[in-house]
Design goal:
Layout (H helix, E strand, L loop, with lengths): L4 H17 L6 E2 L2 E2 L2 H8 L2 H21 L5 E3 L5 E3 L10 H12 L3 E7 L7 E2 L2 E4 L5 E5 L5 E4 L4 E11 L4 E7 L14 E2 L2 H8 L10 E6 L7 E2 L8
């Protein structure tokens, strides 16, 4: 039994880690488990173990922040203590999520990307069957010209390999010399598409040529998000 939430969370992170690795259940998504050799290489690595236990600890603390009376019992001294119960084991799934993430970082996917702003919000030309509900047949080979919904113009669309979990987190506005727009707070700040459009539409920019730049999750090491919600909302 533990008097404080943090003591409980730390102790449970150790216990749940040991309980999960002793299980025979494959790691990761039940429908698409991570290869066993890879999973074992993660859970046997000391650095990964530290990070995994911290994930479990944070998961428990976040839960208790919203439901502080969960996982508690009243002892003989009429004081409330935190104690293990079966519901606590749900936080062991942080291990599976972590292993999944590590495995996904070794996998790639092919996307279509705007060569101008690096967005994946693009359209390409395709052959379709107009009398069969515009059924897709194939892309138009040898014609890289497409449309970027973010740039709002015709652009060269190319195929690139990115990490499986790669995703767009927001936008910046820069010039050809990679200098940031004067309305941006700093080079590590990331904005929504609407905020970026406002900078591009600003009439006080003189003759400076500003361009939209799409920011992916690995573009900036520690980005500061200047908006809430989805970047393209």
């Amino acid at each position: 039994m533990f008097k404080t939430q943090i003591e409980f969370a730390i102790a449970m992170s150790v216990l749940l880690f040991e309980m999960r690795i002793e299980s025979d259940t494959p790691y990761g998504d039940n429908d698409n488990p991570v290869p066993e050799d890879f999973a074992l290489s993660v859970i046997d690595d000391p650095d990964h173990i530290v990070r995994i236990k911290k994930r479990i600890q944070d998961s428990i603390m976040e839960h208790l922040e919203h439901s502080p009376d969960d996982y508690t019992i009243v002892h003989d001294d009429d004081k409330k203590y935190y104690s293990y119960c079966t519901d606590v084991y749900d936080h062991a799934m942080a291990i599976d999520a972590y292993v999944d993430e590590m495995y996904d970082d070794t996998q790639t996917k092919t996307i279509y990307q705007c060569q101008n702003c690096m967005s994946d919000n693009v359209q390409v030309k395709a052959w379709v069957r107009p009398n069969q509900g515009m059924a897709y047949v194939d892309e138009v080979e040898g014609d890289p010209l497409g449309w970027c919904d973010d740039c709002q113009r015709n652009v060269v669309v190319e195929t690139v390999e990115v990490k499986k979990r790669a995703h767009v987190i927001g936008y910046q506005v820069q010039n050809a010399n990679s200098e940031i727009h004067p309305h941006m707070d700093a080079s590590f700040c990331v904005y929504s598409l609407d905020q970026a459009y406002s900078m591009l539409d600003d009439d006080n920019n003189g003759e400076e040529q500003w361009e939209l730049l799409t920011i992916w999750d690995d573009t900036i090491e520690e980005p500061t998000m200047m908006f809430e919600g989805l970047p393209q909302a």
